[in-house]
TrEMBL record:
The keyword Secreted is assigned to this record: no
Transmembrane segments: none
InterPro entries in the record: TRIM45/56/19-like, Znf_B-box
Taxonomic path: Eukaryota, Sar, Alveolata, Ciliophora, Intramacronucleata
Protein name, as recorded: B-box zinc finger protein
GO molecular function, one term: ubiquitin protein ligase activity
Residue ranges with Polar residues bias: 465-490
Length: 535
């Protein structure tokens, strides 16, 4: 981008004022997402594209909307920031979708040498998500294809491994529609994790690596338990015995100095409850809170404000607790429903297997009946054919070994035998049809309601449509997606009902029944083959 373009870009998409409430909120969200208080925002550009915002709102009414922060380096190859501001998020391939994380912010280059980062904050309308199990290693390589028949608004990538560890709050969604993605801010920030190490618990100042437990006012130094005893309680060093040492936890915290240029070096002693700002005495006497409206602001001693905040943060927030309880209730409810659906499904599955088993038994019986008759006929006809062959070959043998007189005698006997065979009653062959028919009602599985996306609910014209969910054609995939869709919500609570269980169960049972029927068919054929061999 050249300077002219940059200026145009800036005019169209204004910077968010440093220190504004929007800025402060975003910085806190960023720090939370990185899990680090050392992230400092340097620049925020608000992508105030009204037509994109209008589209987004219109398209995503009633949909669940989340925030997603993505490292700009992640997107750089596929889209330029200024183009994204005008055209919105461009999917490389809309059929394959794009993965949007929420919660933990993943930086592409997290090495300590890299301090400057740029992220884009999106609003994503995930709506109702279909749950797809995945493994973390697959995330880059795997494509997630759009299912045109799906009623879901997005995919939710369910990471069972992560769920079990439960350490990182990170959830991934796959979206396919650019109208479900709204770029909000481009945020440049500095992030230096090593700064945070300075905030780690203090170590002993007596050049040992133990954790410090005591503070000596006279030495202005921190000591571990052993060093503190050596230095301050050793009888030979009477001088040091007069030192005043306290436990670190009881040491009064330093609140630092005022950063206003005229007040430098003055201790922060006051706290304004309205501006949420720490002040020094000069701020009150001649600075920001000396005149006008701020002069009337209620100020507390900073140590009191700190104690108050500590106390307040320890008390459970009743609203938050209420929300947590509501969520727990819903989760318990859903767990129960999952168990219900699962047991009802198991029940029907058993009935289907019973039907299949009965059907197979009938088929086996019918087949056996027909086979017995056919094989019986086959044996008798073969026997008669063999008999003719046998007597004729005996005649030929006699031709070779007998003298003419003896042969003439044999010939007359043989002719009688031939006549006997020819005049014998013909064997009655059973008229057996080879047809076997199946008269089966198609199995219908119905339920009272179907999973609907919020959008479908809204746009539905015919109230009867979709009321019952009749599964035909390819029932297993719809069935599974429903179960998985429901199961997602329980994943956080009930790990016993795992998605892979459903998948594995389905496969095993199907294979079992397949194996069974094939074996039975082979059994029938084997019987037939064995009897005809005996002929
Ligand atoms: Zn001391
Ligand atoms: Zn020590
Ligand atoms: Zn104030
Ligand atoms: Zn001051």
């Amino acid at each position: 981008m050249n300077l002219q373009q940059e200026n145009f870009f800036l005019k169209k998409f204004p910077q968010v004022g440093e220190g504004s409430s929007e800025w402060i909120q975003l910085e806190y969200d960023l720090q939370l997402g990185l899990g680090s208080i050392s992230a400092v925002i340097k620049d925020i550009k608000a992508i105030n594209n009204q037509s994109l915002q209008f589209q987004f709102q219109k398209h995503n009414q009633n949909r669940l909307i989340l925030e997603s922060w993505i490292d700009y380096e992640e997107l750089e190859q596929s889209q330029k920031i200024d183009e994204m501001c005008y055209k919105g998020f461009e999917f490389k391939d809309p059929q394959k979708g794009h993965v949007f994380p929420t919660g933990y912010i993943e930086l592409r280059d997290n090495s300590e040498s890299k301090k400057q980062h740029t992220v884009i904050m999106f609003k994503i309308a995930v709506g109702r998500s279909q749950c797809i199990p995945y493994r973390k290693e697959e995330i880059q390589s795997r494509d997630y294809l759009k299912d045109k028949n799906s009623n879901f608004d997005s995919l939710y990538l369910y990471d069972e491994a992560n769920d079990q560890q439960g350490s990182v709050f990170l959830h991934r969604y796959v979206l396919f529609d650019k109208e479900q993605v709204l770029p909000m801010y481009q945020i440049k920030f500095e992030f230096d994790d090593s700064k945070e190490k300075d905030l780690q618990p203090l170590t002993c100042d007596n050049q040992c690596s133990n954790k410090a437990k005591f503070y000596c006012k006279n030495d202005d130094a921190y000591f571990c338990h052993d060093c503190n005893f050596d230095i301050h309680n050793n009888n030979q060093q009477t001088f040091n015995q007069k030192h005043h040492t306290i436990e670190i936890s009881k040491k009064e915290k330093s609140f630092g100095n005022c950063k206003v240029s005229d007040h430098q070096g003055t201790k922060l002693e006051l706290y304004c409850m309205i501006c949420h700002e720490a002040l020094c005495v000069y701020c009150k006497i001649q600075g920001s809170h000396s005149q006008g409206e701020p002069a009337a602001h209620q100020l507390l001693r900073i140590s009191d404000a700190y104690k108050k905040a500590l106390h307040e943060s320890k008390v459970l927030d009743p609203q938050l607790e209420k929300r947590k309880n509501e969520l727990t209730d819903h989760l318990t409810n859903i767990d129960q429903k999952i168990k219900d659906v699962s047991s009802k499904s198991k029940n029907i599955e058993d009935r289907i297997y019973k039907l299949l088993e009965d059907g197979l038994k009938l088929l086996q019986q019918k087949t056996k009946e027909k086979m017995c008759i056919l094989i019986g006929d086959q044996l008798e006809l073969k026997r008669q054919y063999d008999q003719i062959q046998w007597i004729e070959s005996f005649l030929k043998y006699q031709q070779n070994v007998l003298n003419p007189a003896e042969y003439l005698k044999a010939w007359s006997r043989h002719s009688q035998l031939r006549n006997k065979i020819i005049s014998a009653d013909k064997y009655q062959i059973e008229e057996i049809s080879s047809d076997i028919h199946m008269d089966a009602q198609p199995i219908k599985i119905t339920s009272e309601n179907n999973v609907q996306s919020s959008q479908n609910k809204q746009n539905q014209q015919d109230p009867n449509e979709n009321q019952s969910n009749v599964l035909r054609g390819n029932p297993s995939s719809q069935f599974r997606s429903q179960i998985l869709g429901n199961n997602k919500n329980s994943s956080a609570k009930d790990k016993n009902v795992s998605m892979s269980n459903f998948v594995v169960n389905n496969n095993t049972s199907r294979n079992q029944i397949k194996g069974q029927s094939t074996l039975q068919t082979i059994g029938i054929m084997n019987n037939g083959a064995t009897s005809s061999e005996g002929a």
